[in-house]
Design goal:
41% helix; alpha+beta; Beta Polymerase, domain 2; single chain; binds ligand 0O2; 3-stranded antiparallel beta sheet
Length: 250
């Protein structure tokens, strides 16, 4: 059942259904709001090492995180008193580290300029939502898409189509409207939504991946993929148990 269709300007139609999210993305590139407006960022030199400029940028994204997190906490709180159970287990967030930004820009072959950063890196602000059941993941995405000041720009459904290494998660790139003293800006945030089992796998895999003195062998990768399959199987069985117990679904 199609719950909501969001028509975005010119290029995209995002359809959110009970069990899936489809995006037909157009060919135009994602256009970032103009954070370089003189009200915000004095455009003296367009280099990332301009400390003040960089800190201002991070502040704008931090504000967007606060906005999304507040919305999610309000939804979580609402479920606490009005329902038997909660589709949100926990919420966490991070601002992408400078090292991670530089690494990603290098990987994409981008020049180290503010404009290249804003046009190409959309996960400076990141929020992660952990849910008990797979169905909750899509429900949380629907709730966010229904918010009037949030626009879903892009959906990557790594649950329906897991990454080759076994990674599963629903990723949304959304903009959230943030009011500052002189302007209102739609700031991009990457929202990762996944189950407890998916998060267990991703968090441990992340730790292993960043263990610098050991490379993943073919055998390690196979083991990890196997663990991801086990998590996926557990998620499916738990979801079916939820049905057997008539646990509230949305
Ligand atoms: P960190 O430390 O979270 O900043 P794109 O943004 O489309 O140009 P990208 O960044 O590959 O390309 O997008 P994608 O696939 O949506 O991944 C973004 C984030 O998802 C990653 O951020 C991770 O947080 C998470 N992620 C993606 N794949 C994996 C994976 O295989 N394992 C784990 N544990 N996490 C993953 P960063 O920038 O890699 O890191």
């Amino acid at each position: 059942m199609v719950e909501k269709i969001i028509h975005q300007e010119k290029t995209e139609v995002v359809q959110i259904t009970d069990t899936q999210i489809d995006v037909e993305a157009g060919t135009e590139e994602f256009t970032h709001p103009d954070f370089t407006h003189p009200e915000f960022l004095p455009q003296t030199v367009d280099y990332l090492d301009m400390d003040r400029q960089y800190r201002q940028l991070m502040y704008i994204h931090e504000a967007a995180i606060q906005q999304i997190t507040a919305k999610l906490n309000i939804l979580k709180g609402e479920f606490q008193f009005s329902n038997d159970r909660n589709p949100i287990s926990s919420i966490c967030s991070r601002i992408k580290s400078k090292e991670s930004i530089v690494y990603k820009m290098q990987k994409k072959g981008l020049p180290f300029t503010v404009s290249a950063l804003l046009a190409n890196i959309h996960d400076i602000a990141g929020v992660r939502v952990i849910c008990p059941f797979i169905q909750d993941v899509y429900y949380v995405a629907q709730m966010l898409a229904r918010q009037p000041d949030i626009e879903i720009m892009e959906v990557k459904d790594y649950i329906r189509e897991p990454k080759e290494n076994g990674y599963r998660s629903l990723h949304l790139i959304a903009t959230v409207r943030v009011s500052f003293s002189n302007t209102v800006e739609d700031v991009p945030v990457e929202i990762q939504i996944r189950t407890i089992a998916m998060d267990f796998w991703a968090s441990t895999e992340h730790q292993l991946r960043y263990k610098k003195d050991r490379e993943f062998s073919e055998k390690d990768q196979k083991k990890l993929r196997h663990c991801a399959e086990l998590m996926a199987k557990a998620d499916k069985e738990i979801q079916s148990l939820a049905g057997d117990f008539n646990l509230e679904q949305w």
